[in-house]
Amino acid sequence: MNKLLKAYDGKVRMMNNNKIKIEKFFKLLDVPNYETLKNLSKETGIPTSRLRYYNDNMILPMGEDMDRLCAYTGYSKELIEISLGHISPEVQSWIINHGEDILKEIAVPDLKVSEVSPVFNTPFGTLFHDDCVKVLVSMPDESVDMVFADPPFNLNKDYGDSIDDDMTKSKYINWCEVWIKECARVLKPGGAFYIYNLPYWNTFLSNILNKYMNFRHWIAVSMKGLIPVQGKLQPEHYGLLYYIKGEKPRVFNKQRIPLVTCRHCGGEIRDYGGKKSSLNPEGISISDIFMDINPVRHKKYKNRSANELPLRLLHRLISLSTDAGDIVLDPFGGAGTTYVAAEFLERNWIGMEIGDTDIIIERLEKNERDRELLLKIEKDSNLLFTEEQVRLRQKNNFWTYEKLRD
Ligand SMILES: C[S@@+](CC[C@H](N)C(=O)[O-])C[C@H]1O[C@@H](n2cnc3c(N)ncnc32)[C@H](O)[C@@H]1O
């Protein structure tokens, strides 16, 4: 049976309902195909849709379903839990106490260091046309000041033959753990680590990051125009995880932005509290909700068909967490937005892209449009209202900072 599926990215795909993904759950229950799944459903009385839900989302069955699975497999509840990778606090403390014995039994694979050479250099940066993990393992410990990563979201997008964007959930999370661990290793103490992803994946990536670093913020990057998903709240943000290696950030350059106003009338959209006259003329401090990051939609500024982040976001994060001369690492180059922003801000950068790197190289070589945009971003930072806002507000008789002071 085929079903039309609308994904988070808005794409509609035909899904073959008889095709199944094999996660730990189906491996344990010996379900290699749809026929055996139907059989399992008949034997246990658990509907196929619910069995798929447990498998695809790596969710642990509970209550009656767990009892039925125990009866069917002959395993205890605890054994099923461990086989599905759910480690209870008791099992965890046993592992902690038996580290040496465990390592005698299993060989932990070592990531191989191989020779990598850059495809492009500028006075500020180095770009590798390669798998980021291959490049990362060749880098020395504690050698970069900031990491920004915007990986593929595993939404079955077409990134070319070298990328599987339709992994099983556990494969995607395991892959993320590999590059996150390497990025954390090459980050200097006090360095900032940002990961941009869907809120769903960020709940899992946080678990990985928490092992190596210190949580600072979950930043909600407000995003309009996301496609509604039936039975869910309207999605309105992407998640930006912000972690620090060690206790404190080495650099924290506070950023200020103009008040958010209606683009039609110029009136404030939010109530910032307090007296207007005590507002800082240099703008409001950025919070953990970014309301002013608009997707790159204008053809003039677009360098690829999708997944290109706005320069404003990278300009803000690099300014916040690094100083001129520092090194910014982005393992997922895409259209090179991070590298363009880093060059403009006179930061060094290290980039990697497994797919096409021509877009990045061309963009760095012909950077007039990006510079124009970045100059405007700088001009519109650290003030309460931009020139356009002042004009609109004066026209519609809203207060301006100058008026308040008169
Ligand atoms: C979401 S896009 C990044 C977009 C980028 N932030 C920008 O603003 O242009 C993710 C990119 O990661 C690349 N990629 C995927 N797997 C990779 C890997 N293992 N190593 C390096 N790049 C990879 C993809 O080809 C894609 O261009």
From TrEMBL:
Keywords, ordered alphabetically: Methyltransferase, Restriction system, Transferase
Principal EC category: transferase
Single GO MF annotation: DNA binding
Pfam families per the UniProt record, alphabetical: N6_N4_Mtase
CDD domains: AdoMet_MTases
GO biological process: DNA restriction-modification system; methylation
EC number: 2.1.1.-
Domain DNA methylase N-4/N-6: start-end pairs: 144-356
Coiled-coil parts of chain: none
Similarity remark: Belongs to the N(4)/N(6)-methyltransferase family.
Protein name: Methyltransferase
Lineage of source species: Bacteria, Bacillati, Bacillota, Clostridia, Lachnospirales
